[in-house]
Amino acid sequence: DEVQPTAMKGLYEVRVGTDVFYSDAQGNYLIQGELIDTQARRNLTEDRIKALTAISFEKLPLQDAIQIVQGKGERHLAVFEDPNCGYCKRFERDLQKVDNVTIHLFLYPILSPESAEKSHNIWCAKSPATAWQNYMLNDEKPAAASCNSDAIGRNLAFGRQHKITGTPTVIFADGTRVPGAIGAADVEKYLQAAGAAKK
User: Fold this and answer.
1) pLDDT of 199 over the 70 cut
2) How many CB atoms lie within 10 A of CB 32?
3) Are 8 and 35 contacting, i.e. CB atoms less than 8 angstroms apart?
4) CA–CA separation, 172 and 190 (whole Å)
5) Residue 52 CB: number of other CB atoms within 10 A?
6) What does the alpha-carbon distance between residue 150 and residue 88 come to, in Å, rounded to a whole number?
7) What is the mean pLDDT of residues 153-177?
8) Rounded to an integer, what distance in angstroms lies between the CA atom of residue 76 and that of residue 62?
9) Banded pLDDT at 14 (limits 50, 70, 90)
10) Which string of DSSP letters, residue by residue, matches 53-81?
11) Helix axes 128-138, 113-123, angle to 10 degrees
12) Average of per-residue pLDDT across 132-154
């Protein structure tokens, strides 16, 4: 997709989608690995991939998410989660300690066919936010329900397009993307950084 010189003379970055490789000028050699700036002590490959995989919060299809408001809900985060994901359950417990936030929950059933069934029943529940929290926090299985749940299919397509390969994946208002379960203190830190970036 793109070839550009790196800070190291004679070494070029070769980008394929959001994957980054390195090569010589002729393309005779290909290096798969990470480029570290030893002076600045920075992983340049990691920085580049973070930039490539960042998702603009404004481009999220929020109409396909379940909204959960805690406190005033002035701060925002989005999260892609699978109801059968143990890390997501831990993340949900930690999220309970975070105040003044609106959570945009994207059901993202990638772990099993049962995940898809549970996601459908949660999306179609009278109160999807309550059904989600009852299941994730109290292990109350969502009752069978029926409605149009095409939003879940759109979430899966969006996730594939943006290489969301694991759950939970959290996206903050400044576009920062954090894969995996993080604790309440880290969520707070990212929310504050996102708030500062918007000022």
Assistant:
1) no
2) 8
3) yes
4) 7
5) 15
6) 22
7) 93
8) 11
9) very high
10) H---GGGS-GGGSEEEEETT--EEEEEEE
11) 130
12) 96
Is the pLDDT reported for residue 85 higher than 90? Answer: yes
What are the residues whose beta carbons fall under 8 Å from the beta carbon of 161, sequence distance 6 or more?
none
Prediction pTM value? 0.81
Q: What angle do helix axes 150-161 and 113-123 make, rounded to 10 degrees?
A: 120
**Structure-token pair, residue 136:** 């994730």
Residues 80, 108 contacting (CB under 8 angstroms): yes
What length is written for the chain?
Answer: 199
Measured CA distances, 181 to 37, 50, 120, 136, 139 (Å): 28, 17, 23, 14, 18
End-to-end Cα spacing for the chain: 34
Q: How far is CA 113 from CA 75, 140, 160, in A?
A: 33, 19, 17
Residue type, 33: G
Longest alpha-carbon distance in the chain: 61
